[in-house]
Amino acid sequence: MSFEELEHTADFLFRCRGSTKDELFEETASAMFSVMFENRKENKIQRKIKLSSDSPENLLLDFLSEILFISETENLVFSETRVKINNNSLEAVIYGGKFNINLHSGGTEIKGISRSGVEIKKYDGKYEISIIFDV
Amino acid sequence: MIKGIKRINEVEWELEKGFVPGMHVPAKFFLSEKLSETLEEGAIKQLANVATLPGIQKYSLAMPDIHWGYGFPIGGVAAFDMEEGIISPGGVGFDINCGVRLVTTPLHISEIGKVKRLINDLFHTVPTGVGTKADKTLTGNELDDMMHEGSKWAVEQGYGLKDDLIRCEDNGCMKEANIEYISKKARQRGLPQCGTLGSGNHFLEVQTVKEIMDEEAALKFGVSKDNVCIMIHCGSRGLGHQVCTDHLKDIESATKKYGINIPDGQLACAPINSDEGRAYFGAMAASANYAWANRQMITHMVREVFSKIYKTEYEDLKLVYDVSHNVAKFEEHTVDGIKKMVCVHRKGATRAFGPHCHDIPKELLEIGQPVIIPGSMGTSSYLLKGTLTAMEKTFGSTCHGSGRVYSRSKAKKEISGSAIKEELERQGIFVKATSNNVIAEEAPGAYKSSSEVVSVVHKAGISLEVARLEPLGVIKG
């Protein structure tokens, strides 16, 4: 796991890392899932996401917001993602299953993703980001 | 205390202009000596940063439940000039019109019987937690009407009584709603979620009135000692969250477009009188109406559960009041001796209008607006009344709750949800939650003491204690 939760009084703050930008996006999505659902194992249902944006940061925020939207409107629990980034566009597949109240509840609903302060940095050859999920 | 903060009196503190560069007005906050231990430097900086925004009036303000938020601190209040001022989604929050309502029942505590049964029934009737949907999905036209009319729509659909409307801030409807600015995505999220509680700090609590501090006001508000009451805390659900997400992006571009200098990107804002500002305000008002209708529909479910178990009449469950604690509104206030319209942002703060002010129900004109302050799980909640001091000092505003001091992750790591549940049961409080994690995250120790927060606003005179309520049982998402 290449994401860790840091102290934040009101919301969820994570530091996520990846060797590539693709991996960074995947890890950040996993961090988000860890807040939302318990027992994330299902991967039979797939959803594809295609997005373009004006910066890598906005691409990440749009990607996460899109996952939140799909999860809520289709009642799906996601466990992992595969992301392929090309410049400021991405193609991703997200894997999950139908939400089951007895199995998956206990997480916290994410109301939004803090937009500002989000900056993809590079340390020791790894991409890194700090991100706040507003709950 | 953090360097540069000036104490004005027992409960009022000030940051002079210059605390951070570019402040147009000083900042002021309300806090007791005891609560000052919980004060975060980040929250104080946020409070000062708000004072740099264009058109801000008098003070950037914070209530005693102040803590670190998104852009504005939670507990923040700021009013802006209608011509030169701005509107900022960071001053409202993701959960637009998150709010609280208090409903009285005709039951005395001795008549409540098994609280566990009542709480289980409420938990199964009111959709609660992540991933739950309402029994009924709205049609597109119903959603439109709901966003235009708020509580009135819900009452007309049979989810309440006409009398409920006068006991809501703005009668449960912001007339400025403009659904043109609600995206397809926001609509899609709103359709299946109307009449759902949500998760996190949202709750539905069965309470009893433990103490009356102001007999006259309590009588007028309709609460008496040992009376069983219901408190509902929730907001505009996914629709409001999506509206905030959608408009934050546009407002961020607008900040640059209009050349507004902000010390923190989270304070993205647009002139009130700009296309982007108007679009956000119209969409925010529509989301606020959705939240009022949502709380109204949950009230309907509660009335039905009580009718079933206790054979109470539908109309015997009476709404004391419904307050919004995440919203921006156009209101008339006195600035430098002149009455003028301003755009008041309340972000984790409650309106607390005093006697004879605008929008107070006729029968409560002499008393002031009821103010409802929920405690954290297992602790006291309060009913207060608004004051003229609040009109003078805080644009008619007061605190909204207890305010977190402990992060959710720390709470989850260090507190056992099941132990808290057992401990509360020993105290006679039955908790039903979707998981023990939620109970740990929301444990009483993760929050400031609601009694301490309320005693500060009472001492400051920005709202006055009327009654203290204690929980009997609670459902949480």
Structure, explained:
Chain A has helices spanning 21-36, 56-74, 101-104; strands at residues 3-6, 12-18, 45-52, 76-86, 89-98, 112-113, 121-123, 126-134. Chain A is α+β, with helices and mostly antiparallel strands. In chain A, α1 (21-36) packs parallel to α2. The longest helix of chain A is centred in the middle third of the chain and has 19 residues, at 56-74. Chain B has one domain: Alpha-Beta Complex (tRNA-splicing ligase RtcB). In chain B, β1 and β2 (12-15) form a beta hairpin. In chain B, strands 7, 8, 9, 11, 15, 16, 18 and 19 form an eight-stranded mixed beta sheet that branches. The radius of gyration of chain B is 21 Å and the shape is globular. Chain B contains 14 helices and 19 strands. Chain B is of the alpha+beta class and 477 residues long. Classes of the chains: A alpha+beta (135), B alpha+beta (477). At the A-B interface, α2 and β6 of A face α6, α8, α11 and α13 of B.
List the topology elements.
The complex is a heterodimer of chains A (135) and B (477).
Chain A: E1 3-6, E2 12-18, H1 21-36, E3 45-52, H2 56-74, E4 76-86, E5 89-98, H3 101-104, E6 112-113, E7 121-123, E8 126-134
Antiparallel strand pairs in A: 1-2, 2-8, 3-5, 4-5, 6-8, 7-8
Helix pairs in contact in A: 1-2
Chain B: E1 5-7, E2 12-15, E3 27-30, H1 41-50, E4 60-67, E5 74-81, E6 86-87, E7 99-108, H2 115-125, H3 140-149, H4 151-156, H5 162-166, H6 184-190, E8 203-212, H7 215-221, E9 227-234, H8 237-257, E10 270-271, H9 275-310, E11 318-324, E12 326-335, E13 338-347, E14 350-351, E15 370-373, E16 381-385, H10 388-393, E17 397-398, H11 408-414, H12 417-426, E18 430-433, H13 436-441, H14 450-460, E19 464-476
Parallel strand pairs in B: 3-4, 18-19
Antiparallel strand pairs in B: 1-2, 2-3, 4-5, 5-13, 6-10, 7-9, 7-11, 8-9, 8-19, 12-13, 14-17, 15-16, 16-19
Helix pairs in contact in B: 2-9, 3-9, 6-8, 8-9
